[in-house]
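Re: beginner question about structure tokens

> Can someone show what the tokenized structure looks like for a real chain? I only ever see the sequence side.

Sure, here's an example I had lying around. Input first:
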Amino acid sequence: MVARGAEPIQKRSVRIAGHATSLSLEAEFWAALHAIARRRGISLNRLVGSIDAGRSGNLSSALRVFVLQCYQRGEIGPENP
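And the corresponding structure tokens:
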């Protein structure tokens, strides 16, 4: 069951350090990651790779926490779509 207004999990393939891997995230997190990568002038794969290099747990969870931290810093959000 999907909560109202929430998008279902989307599985996508990314390349990290030259290796393809698939990740499952909600559409909102994919959109936020794309926006962050675009703002920083880097590819989504490079952004995900940098997050992967510094994580200690599950990559999907690390990506969600990264997006949350960017939102808390004001890097993304309603005023910075």
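Each token stands for a local structural state, so reading them left to right follows the chain. Residues 9-73 form a domain with the Ribbon-helix-helix fold fold (CATH 1.10.3990.20).
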